[in-house]
Design goal:
two-stranded antiparallel sheet, about 15% strand, single chain, about 15% helix, alpha+beta, 3 helices
Length: about 130
């Protein structure tokens, strides 16, 4: 057992199975000690996401903090549940998706969002998600 330097308090490994997205809300699963190894098992379960979106608007950061880069008109007459479901179907199941430049994923030890804010764009592999 390792201890906190200069004390008899044991060091305990702690990990989280959540997102680094500052706008995410919900439950953050935390593993303590041997529980860190169990995080992978817990996170394989079924998940449900709720989102609020501004249809017809794109930003350079892919979130609400970015500069608007594109606007288009969304016509309610063509926007239906069926139309949304057909688009969402492309994101369900086993797909490969590269991480956005504005993410916490690391490239050569540096977080992508740090590189992106410095104007550096790097190629990213598309891992299964």
């Amino acid at each position: 057992t390792r201890y906190l330097p200069g004390s008899c308090v044991p060091l305990v490994k702690v990990g989280h199975g959540g997102t680094l997205d500052p706008f995410a809300e919900g439950v953050l699963v935390i593993g303590v000690g041997a529980g860190c190894k169990m995080l992978e098992v817990f996170l394989k379960g079924w998940k449900e996401y709720t989102a609020v979106a501004a249809l017809g608007t794109a930003t350079d950061t892919l979130d609400l903090t970015g500069r608007i880069t594109e606007r288009s008109t969304v016509y309610p007459s063509v926007l239906s549940s069926a139309a949304l479901e057909s688009v969402l179907a492309m994101f369900r199941g086993h797909i490969k998706q590269p991480p956005p430049m504005f993410s916490a994923v690391r490239h050569d030890g540096e977080r992508l969002h740090v590189l992106a804010r410095a104007g550096v764009h790097v190629s990213r592999p598309a891992p299964p998600v």
